[in-house]
Structures are given as structure tokens and as C-alpha cells.
Amino acid sequence: MDSPDSDGLLAEQLLRLTRRLHRIQSRQLEPAGITPAQFRLLRTVAQYDAAPRMADLAQRLDVVPRAVTTLVDALEAAGRVRRAADPDSRRVVRIEITDEGRSTLRSLRSARRAAAEEILAPLSADQREVLGGLLSALVDGMPERHC
Asked: Please, are residues 87 and 130 in contact by the beta-carbon 8 Å criterion?
């Protein structure tokens, strides 16, 4: 039977792995002048068929709306996204990805793959498949958080 300490150790290992992945990704994104959080937001904006609202992005990223504002400010200053008025409501602001943002995403795909490969290098293909299933079970089993 698992002891309470084994759960604590597992949580610590997950935190260490997350920090390591963040460091690797930061190092690989740095030449493009983009942070991992900005990259994640840019990828998220690109996944929408129509330009999302700031609230949509906050919900999808599971962050507070203020965090999205800060990320959008930085990406907008770099020309990677732009704010656009919603045609149906003057109070709603939508976020559109620009050509520069799409170009950034294309150029950073290899950096993202390289970061993942560096983290996953010690694992065999079978172990990677098992890990993917375990991570999906954890993510899919998480209760919804409301900001």
C-alpha cells in the first residue's frame, strides 16, 4: 500500500519535472524574444476559428483575466497579436493573431519539439505512451477550477 510520503514524493517529482521543462523551454524560446506563457497564449489564440475574447482565453488557459491582459500587452507590443473590436458589442475586445504571430508559431514548433525531446529522452517509446496515458488521466480527471 502507498504511504502518504509516496504521494508527497510523487508531487515533488512532478513539480521538479515541470520546473525543468519550463527552464528548457525558456532557454529555447529566448532567442525569439518570447516567454513560455506568451507562447502558450499565442498557440491558444491560433487554435480558435474566430478571434477569442480575453475571457475565453483566461478560461482556456485556466488563469485569471489580468494574466491574459499582461500576456496580450507583451504580444501586441511585439506585433504578434492585435486587439480588435467585437462587431456585436462595443465592450468586448477580441484578440487576433497577426501574420507575425503565425510566423513566430511556425518557427517555434521545432523549439517546442526539442524541449519535449530533451525531457523525454530517457524514456522508450512504450514508456512515453504509458506516460501520455497517465498524464491524460490526471488532466482529464481534474475538477474544473473557476477563477
From this structure: no
Mean pLDDT of 100-124: 88
DSSP H helix total and E strand total for the chain: 6, 2
Residue 133 identity (one-letter amino acid): G
> Which of 11-25, 50-64, 70-84, 88-102 shows the lowest per-residue confidence on average (mean pLDDT)?
11-25
Other Cβ atoms closer than 10 A to 147: 12
Give the number of residues written for the chain: 147
Q: Is the pLDDT of residue 34 over 80?
A: yes
* Mean pLDDT (whole number) for 80-90: 92
C-alpha to C-alpha distance for 78 and 72, rounded to whole angstroms? 10
With beta carbons less than 8 A apart as the criterion, state whether 120 and 114 touch. Answer: no
C-alpha cell at 123: 524514456
Coil/strand/helix, residue 136: helix
Strands (E), the chain: 81-86, 89-97
- Other Cβ atoms less than 10 A from the Cβ of 104: the count is 24
